[in-house]
């Protein structure tokens, strides 16, 4: 299984609109972060998790030519704003694409994108088959297990896909979800910044603590803001926890 990090940035991206705070960002291209998304490829499947505002650009950069399944973690716009870009894949594949998410996110998406999913669907808009999942689901050669956790006042649903566990926008993970993650070969976890603590996101030290607790062989951090420098941070982190970057590829 091959995983490509399409985007690794926080909800505003790095740098943010207007370039505010760019003076804190060093020239390393790994510090340029689009909104979080990941592409998973196997012999039988091409799956993306989340479709953020830069999804069109991400698919071009990574060379995605087919999408068999979309997984959505939650309804915030930095994770769903690119849903309309799926229509190019509808045209190429000549059919709708299945989309799995939580019941809560599904309801929000249907309301927010009424022109796609309402009674008066706009002709030619994105076509996806929406399904809510709350238990392990088989899709071709993939075992997909929802991973519910807390993101402040809302629930988010990450996913364990075979031996790859992906969780973004994390604040607290219940013990029941930790049990589902254990045994993964790779875990992806959000780590907003080094400090101070944040009311709805893990800091990098908090994410490292979870990685140590679960004893995952390799953890990659995503959803970093512009104050997190890639090279300096990786020097401070243990070898089994490192920052991911846009277009980074790993094989499991």
Describe this protein with a few key phrases.
alpha/beta; 252 residues; 23% helix; 7-stranded mixed beta sheet; single chain
Radius of gyration: 17 Å
Number of strands: 14
Order of helices and strands: EEEHEHHEHHEEEEEHEHEHEE
With strands numbered from the N-terminus, the spatial order across the biggest sheet is 6-5-4-3-2-1-14
Total number of helical segments? 8
Report, as a whole number of angstroms, the end-to-end distance: 5 Å
- Determine the mean pLDDT: 97
Low-confidence stretches: none
> Helix coverage percent of residues?
10-25%
Classification by helices and strands: alpha/beta
Q: How large is the share of residues in beta strands? A: 25-35%
Which shape, going by the Cα principal axes? globular
Largest sheet: 7 strands, mixed
Question: What would you say this structure looks like, in words?
Answer:
- There is one protein chain.
- By secondary structure, the protein is an alpha/beta fold.
- The chain contains eight helices and 14 strands.
- The longest helix has 11 residues, at 204-214.
- It is globular.
- It starts with a strand and ends with a strand.
Strand-helix topology:
Blueprint: E1 2-7, E2 37-41, E3 46-49, H1 55-62, E4 69-71, H2 77-80, H3 87-93, E5 97-101, H4 103-112, H5 114-117, E6 128-132, E7 137-139, E8 142-151, E9 154-161, E10 164-167, H6 175-181, E11 186-190, H7 204-214, E12 218-222, H8 230-236, E13 241-243, E14 249-251
Parallel strand pairs: 3-4, 4-5, 5-6, 10-11, 11-12, 12-13
Antiparallel strand pairs: 1-2, 1-14, 2-3, 7-8, 8-9, 9-10
């Amino acid at each position: 299984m091959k995983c490509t990090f399409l985007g690794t940035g926080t909800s505003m991206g790095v740098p943010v609109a207007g370039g505010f705070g760019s003076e804190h960002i060093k020239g390393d291209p790994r510090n340029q972060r689009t909104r979080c998304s990941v592409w998973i490829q196997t012999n039988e499947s091409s799956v993306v998790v989340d479709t953020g505002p830069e999804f069109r650009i991400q698919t071009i950069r990574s060379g995605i030519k087919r999408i068999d399944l979309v997984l959505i973690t939650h309804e915030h716009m930095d994770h769903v704003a690119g849903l309309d870009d799926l229509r190019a894949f509808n045209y190429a594949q000549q059919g709708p694409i299945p989309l799995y998410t939580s019941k809560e996110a599904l309801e929000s998406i249907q309301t927010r994108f009424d022109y796609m999913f309402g009674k008066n669907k706009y002709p030619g808009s994105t076509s996806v088959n929406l399904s809510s999942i709350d238990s392990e689901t088989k899709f071709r050669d993939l075992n997909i297990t929802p991973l519910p956790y807390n993101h402040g006042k809302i629930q988010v649903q990450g996913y364990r896909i075979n031996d790859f566990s992906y969780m973004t926008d994390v604040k607290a993970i219940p013990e029941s979800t930790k049990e589902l993650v254990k045994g993964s070969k790779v875990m992806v976890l959000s780590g907003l910044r080094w400090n101070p603590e944040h009311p709805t996101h893990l800091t990098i030290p908090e994410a490292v603590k979870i990685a140590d607790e679960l004893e995952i062989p390799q953890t990659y951090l995503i959803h970093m803001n512009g104050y997190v420098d890639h090279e300096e941070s990786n020097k401070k982190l243990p070898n089994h926890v490192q920052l991911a970057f846009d277009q980074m590829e790993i094989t499991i």
